[in-house]
Amino acid sequence: MTSVLWFRRDLRLGDHPALHEAAGDGPVAALFVLDPALLEPSGAPRVAFLYRSLRALDEDLRSHGGQLVVRRGDPVKVVPEVAKEVGASSVHVSADFGPYGRTRDEAVEESLGDVRLVRTGSPYAVAPGRLTKKDGEVYKVYTPYHRAWKEHGWRKPATPIASRVDWHTGLNGIDIPGDPALPEGMDLPDAGEDAARKAWTKYHDGGLGGYGNDRDRPDLDRTSRMSMYLKWGAIHPRTILADLGPGDETYRGEIAWRDFYATILATWPESAREYFQPELATMEYAPADGAAFEAWTQGRTGFPIVDAGMRQLLALGWMHNRLRMIVASFLVKDLHIEWQHGARHFMKHLVDGDLASNQHGWQWTAGTGTDAAPYFRVFNPITQGQKFDPQGDYVRRWIPELLNVPGKAVHTPWELDAPPVDYPEPIVDHKKERLVALERYQAARAGRSSS
Q1: Strands 90-93 and 3-7: what pairing?
Q2: CB count, 10 Å around CB of 217?
Q3: pLDDT reported for residue 374
Q4: How many other CB atoms are there within 10 angstroms of residue 225's CB atom?
Q5: pLDDT tops 60 at residue 174
Q6: Phi and psi angles of residue 90, each rounded to the nearest 5 degrees, phi first
Q7: CATH number of the domain bearing residue 143
Q8: Distance (Å, rounded) from C-alpha 240 to C-alpha 183?
Q9: Is residue 395's pLDDT more than 80?
Q10: Does some domain include residue 79?
Q11: Cα(58)–Cα(153) distance, integer angstroms
Q12: What's the rounded Cα separation, in Å, for the pair 145 and 136?
């Protein structure tokens, strides 16, 4: 019997357990559904990278005698229609643990009737639900989760079988849309499985060794940038883990963080929008419709390391991870604007925008999420710049107004005898706003303990 392989966040043919299961049922029809519920909130960079990933997947399928059928609409209607057209006995997917994905899949499963919806594998090395504490509770703190994650382990990459699959062809679909308009000058990396594997091989052979020491240095640019490929599943984390050695523990830990946040979101789906620690929602916040928020989004706060990060985001659809923490701390703890506004801005602009990692990364920095201790940590944007961009190369790369400011003086341009006239002065006093933030956090936490 023919089966349907419904691609979502697994846009590859290698290391694909769901493909193995689908091929075991007979001929396989490859399907992708352009779902308006997911496309409409996404920014142009992520949509463009998705479309390019789909074109690459279709090209790969055609090289093996198949084709990618693309339809637009509600999957609850589209998937059963395709299954009926090919006479499918089963629809195969990689499991989705996100709030929308899980609800959607349950609705699709019901609408399929007698046709089975088979979930095999996931976008994670260790899928949500696999790890629990001895009492059956889900881990809320990363460190013990990480220990359990390493002890549990993960499977080896699945054997490539695309060339042996009997691909079903002949279904009608729509053309993959052209890319939406991107910001001027934005140059996205190559998309698709082949590009992902080449990027990983290049990094593994040339940059991975320095990751542990240099990952926090945006001026050195020593991160792998594999996050956008992992977002759409052009490569599976299991494939990456298989290449890591004993000395790559820091990089391995980043994959564990990804799995951890996916588990948190799967267990508490409301945490995508609401406070993981709800008592902190009572804290006093500033509105996000004023000049301060606008200055933050445009990289015009007067704090060079913050502005460089925000401008990198607008230019590349990507931001160095250390900068993600710095700019998030600045928004929440210097400008006193709720984390959801920053998280939404990131999801609009990031090519690698992943709901679990993004929302819980923001909650961690805001002090409202898992591992609660950071509530009292307020990043100093000046010392963060001096420490992680010691010569100012990263700042000068993204802020041309400061191009002629030498060395680490670039982090405090207002102290120059002749400050650059076209770069703004700091919009807040960090020392003052840090104290305000701490007072508000302490008040909110006291309200919890006294209730």
Answers
A1: parallel
A2: 19
A3: 59
A4: 17
A5: yes
A6: -155, 150
A7: 1.25.40.80
A8: 31
A9: yes
A10: yes
A11: 32
A12: 13
- β-sheet bridge partners, residue 71: 33
Convert the pLDDT of each residue in 341-390 to its tens digit.
999 999 999 999 999 999 999 999 999 999 755 567 899 999 999 999 99
Closest CA to 1 of 36, 29, 20: 29
Query: Which structure tokens are listed for 8?
Result: 């979502």
What CA–CA distance (Å, rounded) separates 409 from 365?
A: 27
Enumerate residues 6+ apart whose C-beta is below 8 A from 43: 317, 347, 348, 349, 350, 353
Encoded tokens for 99: 């709030």
Q: Supply 194's token pair.
A: 């082949």
User: In this structure, are 340 and 296 located in the same domain?
Assistant: yes
Among 155, 125, 118, which residue's Cα sits nearest to residue 28? 118
Asked if 233 and 319 sit in the same domain, the reply is: no
CA distance 130 to 260: 11
Domain range for 330: 272-446
Q: Is the pLDDT of residue 191 over 90?
A: yes
Residue 118 has pLDDT above 90, yes or no: yes
In a domain, 164, yes or no: no
The owner of tokens 């989705």 is 96
What residues have CB less than 8 Å from 36, skipping those under 6 apart? 72, 73, 74
Helix axes 355-366, 249-267, angle to 10 degrees: 100
CATH number at residue 24: 3.40.50.620
Residue that terminates a domain, selected from 267, 284, 302:
267
Rg, the chain, Cα only? 23
pLDDT-derived band of residue 410, with 50, 70 and 90 as boundaries? very high
